[in-house]
Amino acid sequence: MNKVSTSTKLTMLLIAMTTMMSNVAIVTALPHLKDYFTSTQNIEFLAKMMLTLPSLAIAFLAPILGHLVFKIGRKRSAFTALFLFLIFANSGIFFVVIK
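Predicted structure:
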């Protein structure tokens, strides 16, 4: 039987969590978005629609990223995706702090 290393298990767990954690980051920023864009019509509806953006991005980019994974390798693409998520997931903090 082929054993899976602990680092591989941890990486797979982190990758699986990214979809859920992106929605959590958006949910925490929704009240601030409503305050910031008070002059925008239907801001409550538009702010709630932002919850679907990560899922739509995954659905639309999956075929393209699938080809990219086969070209550069699974390990490199997984670490690159986690690094990009780390950087962009923290951008919500700067939005709240700057305001």
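Summary: The chain has five helices and no strands.
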